[in-house]
Design goal:
- The chain is an all-alpha fold.
- It is built from 16 helices and no strands.
- It has helices spanning about 5-30, 40-55, 60-80, 90-95, 100-105, 110-125, 125-135, 140-155, 170-195, 200-225, 230-260, 260-285, 305-340, 345-355, 360-385, 390-410.
- Helix 11 packs parallel to helix 14 (about 345-355), helix 13 packs across helix 14 and helix 13 crosses helix 15.
Length: about 400
């Protein structure tokens, strides 16, 4: 049986050598001809030193790191004379030196493996991150920073006691805004930065998760601007239908997060509606054309949008309570149909999170009706903004909307 210390030594030796080799490969790929601190052999010896010093004494291990830092400081001083200021090599060899401390503390090969993989990933992903960051403008970064501030700093200190007339706390109101914005933002990021293929199919999928209404408008305008015909038209029709199919899945995710009783009521019908749209969409998508599709480039984390959503959310809670108290279930169904011709998220969230004196079936019915009338709105948008070009998608959305509304009425 191999002694445990020998096994540790061999593992550290291997990872130290591989890290040094990766660092040297990175330097060669960047055509760095000037002398630099650290190579495959140097990295290996640093790993061995870390192992030996830690086995002898922890104080010697710490002293060894200070000595290593001093050596690099001297190297950096002369390096800085030639206007070379990178400390990348030092950071990598510091991680190599820490292998022993980390390993003997956790006694798990996965800890070093994760560090090694992270080093390899970061060294090799520089060019890709440059391409991503070149697409991010300053306003997006600033907006995201403000959102983090509001969600991480303000959210925890908001009062959790229910507000008068509303029956829901300021904390929960803002929590709803944070979660909905986050869902939209992840879809926005995936569509804009993670997928190089900006195809209509990708626009339909992630745009639908972000906002199926906005996506429908963008695609319809695109159809008119290029005067889409034949295969191109079938692709755009397919993508518009796909966006609405994703809307049903998005509403299911929202229901699952905030009210699982409603989620189970919506699960079967919304899956059926979504799958129907997906099947029709893929049936229409019969082209190999490599066309670049437009995206809705508005950042969903804009603070103005977040505050407007919060105001609409509170307003929908108040008007829904008023309607249910004075006009009952019939009034709620009519309200659901009307609200479907606007932004349905605040209304649906007011139903599944607000303290409204109606049963689960009535809430589910209202959500389904709102989704159906929203489909009719998108059908009108598709028909108007494309100047009748996306007629097929409009017809399907109207039919799907009517079926959805009928189901919502009879359940």
């Amino acid at each position: 049986m191999i002694p445990i210390d020998l096994l540790y030594f061999l593992i550290i030796l291997s990872f130290s050598f591989l890290t040094g080799l990766e660092l040297k490969t990175y330097k060669l790929s960047k055509q760095v001809q000037k002398p630099h601190f650290g190579s495959a052999r140097t990295s290996t010896f640093i790993g061995i030193l870390g192992f030996a010093f830690y086995k002898i004494n922890i104080n010697l291990f710490i002293l060894g790191y200070f000595s290593l830092t001093l050596l690099y400081a001297i190297h950096y001083y002369f390096k800085n004379q030639n206007l070379r200021t990178s400390i990348l090599s030092f950071l990598v060899i510091s991680l190599v030196y820490s292998f022993s401390r980390h390993f003997f503390t956790i006694t798990n090969i996965w800890s070093i493996a994760i560090i090694f993989v992270s080093i390899v990933f970061i060294l090799n992903y520089k060019s890709h991150t440059k391409n991503i960051f070149s697409q991010i403008n300053q306003n997006e970064i600033e907006t995201f920073g403000k959102f983090i501030l509001l969600s991480a700093v303000i959210l925890p200190v908001l009062p959790k006691n229910p507000l008068p007339f509303i029956g829901i706390s300021a904390f929960k109101i803002w929590l709803v805004v944070v979660i909905i914005s986050a869902i939209s933002y992840f879809s926005y990021i995936a569509q804009k930065f993670l997928f190089k293929n900006k195809s209509f199919l990708i626009t339909g999928i992630f745009g639908g998760l972000y906002s199926s209404t906005a996506t429908t408008v963008v695609l319809s305008k695109k159809a008119f601007s290029i005067n889409a015909k034949d295969n191109v038209l079938s692709i755009i029709n397919s993508s518009i239908i796909l966006a609405t199919s994703m809307m049903y899945l998005r509403l299911l995710v929202i229901a699952f997060i905030f009210n699982q009783n409603i989620f189970y009521k919506l699960l079967i019908p919304f899956l059926i509606f979504s799958l129907t749209g997906i099947i029709i969409s893929f049936f229409l998508y019969k082209s190999n054309l490599n066309l670049e599709a437009p995206i809705d480039d508005r950042n969903p984390l804009e603070l103005g949008t977040a505050f407007v959503f919060a105001i609409l959310f509170v307003f929908m809670i108040l008007i829904t309570k008023f309607v249910t108290i004075h006009y009952g279930n019939l009034g709620l169904k009519i309200l659901s149909f009307i609200v479907g011709f606007t932004d349905i998220d605040p209304f649906i969230l007011s139903l599944i999170t607000g303290k409204i004196s109606i049963n689960i079936n009535e809430i589910a019915s209202a959500v389904i009706i709102a989704a159906g009338s929203n489909n009719i709105l998108k059908a009108l948008y598709s028909y108007i903004f494309s100047k009748k070009i996306t007629f097929l998608a409009s017809i399907f959305l109207i039919i799907l909307g009517i079926i959805t509304i009928i189901y919502g009425i009879i359940i």
